[in-house]
Amino acid sequence: MFKKILVANRGEIALRVIRAAREMGIGSVAVHSTADSDAMHVRMADESVCIGPPSSQHSYLSIPAIIAACEITGAEAIHPGYGFLSENANFVQIIQDHGLTFIGPTAEHIRVMGDKITAKDTMKKLGVPCVPGSEGGVGSVEEARKLGAEMGYPVIIKATAGGGGKGMKVATSADDMEKAFLTARAEGKSNFGNDEVYIEKYLTTPRHIEIQVFGDGKGRAVHLGERDCSLQRRHQKVFEEAPGPAISPEERARIGKTCADAMADINYIGAGTIEFLYENGEFYFIEMNTRLQVEHPVTEGIFGVDLVREQIRVAAGLPMEFTQENLKINGHAIEVRLNAEKLPDFRPSPGRISQYHAPGGLGVRMDSALYDGYSIPPYYDSLIGKLIVHGRDRPEALSRLGRALGELIIDGIDTTIPLFHALLAEEAVQTGEYNIHWLEHWLETNLGDS
Ligand code: ADP
Predict the structure, then answer these.
(1) What does DSSP say about strands 383-391 and 355-357: parallel, antiparallel, or unpaired?
(2) pLDDT for res 127
């Protein structure tokens, strides 16, 4: 096992990894920008190294600075968290070239899944059902219109390199196509340096259901059920739960096995998430994330496992502790993402936390890097914490969420806490009868958000 690992991230996810390392008796190294000298991950790690100025480009995304930090501290492996360099195949290659270990999948798997066209093609060949759409990339508006006519509108044009909800545009008719096509292409180019796009049928009432998979890199893989992440704003998740309220045990076992078998086939190593849209009892693959997800704690809650510990173990060459037979679902878990944002328009609201009180009690987990007096820097993502609750069933988890939100105090900045109080009062949230468009409509009606 490693003696020391470096965490190439910040915020709550850096703490998450440091905590797992400490429980395993592994030393931890935090890296940070000059804007994060006082950050909780720096305080909590055994050692820390400043790797650059506030801009992520020159700190959390600086591969040379991170490799140098490993060399200075003697860290043997790097955990990337999510975001930043977590899905950068080049980073993985460089880590290996320096004789270090990347805690995550191989560069090759990251490369294949990082390009959505190649990912879809690969999954289709592995027997995973996909959203109907173009075979590969679409090069011109004319070709896009021809496909639109064949498939029937609405369709969605997606940048193959897209992520974080960027590079996706819906065309509702042939008239819309030119604008949607060119915008998706331009967003792909400006955000990801790649203007290749493809087309999919736009599903009108699906849920977002994603399957957690885990492999040992030696041909064994398991699934840890699904998460329903349908409550989204601008294609970004805000509320996630497991198990999915609309998925039966039979459906879970069937799609779970398809995913686990596909991962076993490609010798996948570590944690991964296979994302689907689910409509009328059918699953349609949209993309795979080759890393730990923000919402992984809901899966940990219902299965009673530590996914980060398992990631570190398999990266060190140890066997996976999971077996499919031993993975049993217990109860229901819900996560809400707390952002430093001001409602109704979700404008970023960085600043100093004058008072912070985390909720506690049975079935409550608060993953956050906040503390009293901490100043949230304006340079990074606005996620400031995740509140995760676990109950014996969905109604208990929901009432526990309401109780925990009531205890939570984050003063000094604006947050999205009021959104969740309001959502809990909604019948659709209480019954679990929502789809990926429900929240957008609700926000438009209730907050005037568009
Ligand atoms: P990203 O990589 O940016 O997260 P995804 O491909 O994972 O993009 O899609 C994110 C979200 O966009 C989905 O959860 C869903 O809400 C919406 N979406 C993507 N593809 C489709 C589709 N074919 N039909 C309807 N909605 C879609």
Answers:
(1) unpaired
(2) 93
